[in-house]
Amino acid sequence: MTDTRPIPAPIPDSHRLSVSISGAGGAGAVTVGLILLEAFGKAGFYGALTRSFGPQIRGGESAVFLNLSDQPIETLPEATDIHLALDWKNFERFADEIPLTANTEIFYDDSREKPPALVTESGAECTPLPLLNTLKEIKGGRINMLGLGVLAKRLGLAEHAIEQALQKTLGRKGDEAVQLSRQTVEAGQALVEAPKTSPLKGWQPSEQARWHLSGNEACAIGALRGGLKLAAAYPITPATDIVEYLAPRLEKVGGQVLIAEDELAAMNMVIGGAFGGVPAMTATSGPGFALMTEAMGLAVASETPALVVTVMRGGPSTGIPTKSEQADLNQVLYGLHGDAPHVVVAPLNVSESVWVTQWALGLAEHLQTLVVLATDQHLGQSRMICDPTLPEDMSQTRGLTRLRAEPRTTGDPAYQRYALSADGLSPMSEPGLPGAQYTADGLEHTETGLPSSSAQDHRDQLAKRAQKLTEFDYGDDWATYLPADKAKHLILTWGSSFEACKEAVARHNAEAKKGKQVSLLGLRLLMPLQSKSLRQLCKGHQVTVVEQNATGQLYHYLLSEQALPKSSQSFARPGPILFTPGELQTYLRSLTEEAT
Fold first, then answer.
1. Which architecture characterizes domain 10-189 according to CATH?
2. CA angle, 331 then 332 then 338, to 5°
3. Boundaries of every domain in the chain
């Protein structure tokens, strides 16, 4: 079985709004976006914020994109409704990411350079405003707060929502800073007229509790919920946010955050902490993951619990460190040398990253092995106003604990740390436990842990390490299945591609006739693959695997595991421009028409 839900209805165009802000580094474009997202949350709405910036450590251009609605939304916008340009420096670098059309409204400062050709050629309505001249009248005011006022007025946001968002975002800077920002926002509001018809007309706000978090924060929260006590890491984009979020919080629950001298040292610290008896994890990205793989093999061979969260980015090598791609799948599946069975899981969106990370940490503890949680820059660094997402039955995530050895007395049989058992699991002792000392290293070993080069010991221990993973019951959450009645086509995807596929399928099915509708399957458990269940769900469908990489890595992996019909096909392209629902809807239309 798997997690099965109905396909949601698509969000009407009148209930969605997209806003983008751009500017040079330090201009405050990201801050405007964060406050605006917070304000929409305070007003009772939903929103998704994605950032774009260059690889510079400091400075450089930046932009944010918001997709807003009174219904849950986690996708990128198809086109920009309103754009605020704090300046036009290097704006052409965002040409692929800020979709301007003739319906786009653009606001910019009239004292600086004119809009570049790519903006005027889009046909967008450009409105110059005296931002810098107005700023001269506000001592200490910032241009981004003027821009926030312009956007708030144009969007028709309630005053109390802006006020609360300013306090929440800037309150740590003190009352004087908040008051100055409020004054500057009001000056910005005075520069534009309110729209004749509010863009929010017909939107239904709700007082229901919502989460406001990024995917990286969600992973950190999930680890804390799972009982994490040690996080060791070496900083790397775009995973560092996880450790930064944990640092002030883990200590409050009796844990520690350690910053290592390099990635290999961080992984060894995780193994040491877990060997000492506590749940432990690290966070990294592709280049750091590569440096950790030697120690990951040690975790597998010594059957030591370890969680590795890898936040994928564009590669290879240094690649595009601030952009997203799903191109490290082969790395997390096959990157370890030798036969090294381990678990690979991947959340399908930002909100569920909480419980999937909790689940992953529990799996590492219970199965005494390496678990890799694969997310990416888009999921990790996007921020969402979203509904709390936790399974109704959390027993699968909360109930996964380590099988611990008991103290032994004189006369008891020798402690067999790696005893062969029916389920492949054997009790794990902690250092200093009377009568339960053992050797834990990377050498092959006997059941007691003594090094061995015996062929029989090698075969037995290889089978033990694999059996405990393949025979474990992972429950219904290994995938989410959204079936359509009498659908002949099935879209299969994973990770950050899921939400775009879900919205595309919803739009397509709302327009398609019976027989041309499409079902959707999102995989969370990538290894060990639930091949039998997957084949059953794919049966009778023309399957297309959608993923964000150049070579169709998931498609080829599923074929190699004989989990797909031979007639299946791949729809894969590299990043860093992510899939949009519109792009995928066009593909679905061509797919079903071609089948006819």
1. 3-Layer(aba) Sandwich (3.40)
2. 80
3. 10-189, 212-398, 479-595
